[in-house]
Amino acid sequence: LLWSGELANGTVWDINAEWVHFDHPGGGPGDGSTVTAGLGFGFGSWRFGASHAWLDSTVLASAEDETVDQVSVGYDFSGDYSLDIGLKRHQAEGGAGTYLGTILSFAFN
Mapped to the 3 state alphabet, what secondary structure does 12-34 carry? Predict the structure, then answer.
């Protein structure tokens, strides 16, 4: 589900939610489901986003529940290129990890 809108000052916003259920992924034992909720804002050349996901899984006889939290910020530069930076935290019963990523993208004309 996605709900989008624009405020009077030009700020664009998005709210999204997703539910997925899977049985025997890749032909293996187990099943599970995941729920993701996200929020995004764009103002002028800037954009911001955040999401949280919950995974309930019995895949491969594992009873671990997992969560993933993500935040990102991006900027569109003149000249058809943009830069985005994101931070992700993945937490499972067996441990947690934090990841930082960036992407520089540009258009070919």
Answer: EEEEEEEEEEEECHHHCCCEEEE
